[in-house]
């Protein structure tokens, strides 16, 4: 009955006596912060809340290995047994995220070094170099000890490698990093000639005549070489992935049947890790997400969860962390409003999460995160938060039939690319104001405003099932990607791209002959000069929109190009701002400026109409409801999330109500979605239109 994940996908190994479908529900659990008396109470409350899995021992290295030569597993044995007896499975951490003081005292050479040469000292967490051979040896010793000890423990459901790899140590400029960077560069380029070409070292006398001369882009006198910067970003992401692989290798050697994961951070401006390239190194994808309050806060949650699903190939994934209420690390840490805890959780489930977990189970009484919310707050179980937590547990139990289903792909997708993110925001560019992810998010907000489902997918995704691809600021376009995009359009697909797209190849070399070089012929336009706008400046378009940030000197070069909007003032007055070329039954459109989330729906609506892609929602719900669909061969589940603080009627939306975060109302026969509520409707599977 469940969908068919590829063989590469291995989900949580639930205790063997119970194979019924279920969603996971839980938290990071840090019993080492509490006296033993609290543990039994924890398990009792977990049962009350419906918790069935916890991530354990994440920051326990110092407790598990108090000195270089002593180990203490007794407490972990005891809590593993207690959890198992209480029916709670364990996603057991390898505990390598935060090295203990004895290790950093013995080996200060594992500490990361910043771009300016400062050491990041112990006292917080994640103070280790991803490329330190000494750190690696000690970390793997711990992994081996844990894997050996718990290999046959019945509570062990999955392995949790480290924690948020790269959270605080993605860019390390130490000598270890320099050595590993050279090895990485040799593997990538083979010869110094190839490297010198790729890095464009004829410029500013940067020619390298020996591999030993190569360095990470440490603080320099001026703008560091852009390809060196890009390669260092790629290398840093790969170095962390390499650590993941090293831990995974130990784990799978000792426990081949236990799935391995690590928690990604697809959220906000966290950008150091190219997670699309990590997806094949985990048995199932996990993600941590924290809401950034603001007008696009909920859109951003939906965007991130959607991208996680894209990375996971639409297969189920594990929401490893989010918050029940306030966090402690934003400028002002706002509590969630009633209904938001459950709404946020179910929006992730709608995008494919089969487990919902929080940071953390019990709010700490001491330490840097004592003001971070948890499932059991300082106030204790007699609290609004814990009541919301137990209510969510019931809702997730009712959603058990959703477990194992996949997310239904949309007809439209936004293409997301880490190389373009990193490169488009480099220094020494036409503007320092460009924000890659914000542009992508604005297009996503436009889809939400129109009520049209859109996926967010990495460039390595198969584009062929989509009717529309929106590729905002797709800056890095190697020839192979340009060919794929051309093939997509020639096969009848509709491509929409924007300013600063198609400009450079994989080495960050400009495609010559006029911009946007890699996509110029496909779009049927030619740009001789970029014309970015000063901060705060706006120019008008003849469709009434106001544009900021960027304009281009666009010339139309193909006869089948329609100019859909022109600039009315500013440096490009009279020139095309929005063009669309028809290619057979497909098309290729180009928007040469930034319109922002408020104005993009108009333009997007126009382009989608040309592609005959519309909303699956009733008109009254468009813009107010975020729709995601999960499906098996027989059934489909419509997750309808009210994005507003008002009730929203859902006329003509069919299906049996499987679960809701707040009981929906009825107006005659029409279901009414309460403010901030999510309802899940179950219906027989129908082929997508
Ligand atoms: C995550 C981390 C958790 C906790 C949480 C607080 O980055 O994995 O350990 O610090 O943030 O929001």
Automatic annotation (TrEMBL):
CDD domains: A4_beta-galactosidase_middle_domain
Active site: 164 (proton donor), 321 (nucleophile)
Residues that coordinate or bind substrate: 125, 163, 329
One Pfam short name: Glyco_hydro_42C
Record flagged with keyword Hydrolase: yes
EC number: 3.2.1.23
Family matches, as Gene3D superfamilies: 3.40.50.880, Glycosidases (3.20.20.80)
Beta-galactosidase trimerisation domain residues: 410-612
Keyword Hydrolase among record annotations: yes
Gene Ontology, cellular component aspect: beta-galactosidase complex
Domain Glycoside hydrolase family 42 N-terminal: 28-398
Keywords linked to the UniProt accession: Glycosidase, Hydrolase
A GO BP entry: galactose metabolic process
Sequence ranges assigned to domain Beta-galactosidase C-terminal in this UniProt record: 625-683
InterPro entries: Beta_galactosidase_C (IPR013739), Beta_galactosidase_Trimer (IPR013738), Class_I_gatase-like (IPR029062), GH (IPR017853), Glyco_hydro_42 (IPR003476), Glyco_hydro_42_N (IPR013529)
GO MF annotations in UniProt: beta-galactosidase activity
Reactions listed under catalytic activity: Hydrolysis of terminal non-reducing beta-D-galactose residues in beta-D-galactosides
Family listed: Belongs to the glycosyl hydrolase 42 family.
Cited PANTHER family: BETA-GALACTOSIDASE GANA
Protein name as annotated: Beta-galactosidase
Organism whose genome encodes this protein: Streptacidiphilus jiangxiensis
